[in-house]
Amino acid sequence: MLKYILPIIFLLPLCSTHAQSGKVYDDVSMTSKILDSQRKFAIYLPPDYETSQRSYPVLYLLHGGGDDQTGWVQFGEVLRITDNAIREGKATPMIIVMPDANTGRRGYFNDIKNEWRYEDFFFEELMPYVESKYRIKGSKRFRAIAGLSMGGGGSFMYALHHPELFSSACPLSASAGPLSEEQMKERLARRYDDNTDYPADVMQQYYERHSALFMMENLPVDDIKSVRWYIDCGDDDFLYEGNSLIHIAMRKREIPHEYRVRQGGHTWTYWREALPVVLGFVSDAFHQY
User: Fold this and answer.
1) Average pLDDT of the residues in 111-125
2) Quick one: which of 210, 215, 241, 242 has its CA closest to 227?
3) Within 13 Å of residue 204, how many CA atoms lie on the same side as its CB?
4) Is the pLDDT of residue 42 over 90?
5) More confident residue, 91 or 187
6) CA distance linking residue 133 with residue 144, whole number of Å
7) 150: nearest Cα among 121, 181, 109, 187
8) 3-class SS at 78?
9) What distance in Å separates the CA atoms of residue 84 and residue 91, rounded to the nearest whole number?
């Protein structure tokens, strides 16, 4: 009898380990009054979410231009990478929310006419919705933001606009916004076919709110320092200049941050390699120091 029991005993740990997997739902939706539409998001729930009663920290993970809420799921392999990081003790169990910023209009910000108010939707509708529907610890210490490319820009702006809400921000290969007002005008004309001659004060205000470089150089230092920063951009990335200038501006103002330049370009290979580091970095704030 013993010879049949022993193999079963040895298999039990393997079965238990295999069962420890999180879940991803990539077609969840909510109603937005601000955007007058149904807005989709994907969500990662950690392995013990269904068996525990506790609440979890949250990472808002933003996709890049051309993707939607499924980008980090399909190409970024968020389920596999996060499960592995948690299993190996490199990251704490957390909930990851991945919103869609590609439907209707592309981008994470309110437009210059304030007709498409995506940023207002994010803070006034999406965050309250997910943090009440799921067991999320809704405080600064247990909330982080990260993203790639367009989403890296969103990570910069959201954390700089609301440093009271995020403990960590991790822009990856970030589109960090215009480096000058002239560049902003060119982008408006090219991206939205918008050649409107806006009043100078309107252009100035919009530039100051959507240039990460300007904000890093001009916002109160203590506000910026209240966020832990991890900035990562490949040495062959076409967005390298903006990220480098932000790093230099932060050094000049003695703002603590991690700045990484690794070999690579603007690719999912690069971002998949970055994600485990991001998960560990935000977990450092989620944990007790």
Assistant:
1) 96
2) 215
3) 3
4) yes
5) 91
6) 18
7) 109
8) helix
9) 9
pLDDT in tens, 172-216: 999 988 888 888 878 777 766 667 778 888 889 999 999 999 999
Rounded-to-integer distance, Cα 217 and Cα 202, Å: 20
Query: Cα–Cα distance between 190 and 243 in angstroms, integer?
Result: 22
Calculate mean pLDDT across residues 51-80.
97
Per-residue pLDDT band at 13 (split at 50, 70, 90): very low
pLDDT of residue 193: 64
Bridge-based pairing of strands 37-45 and 143-148 is unpaired
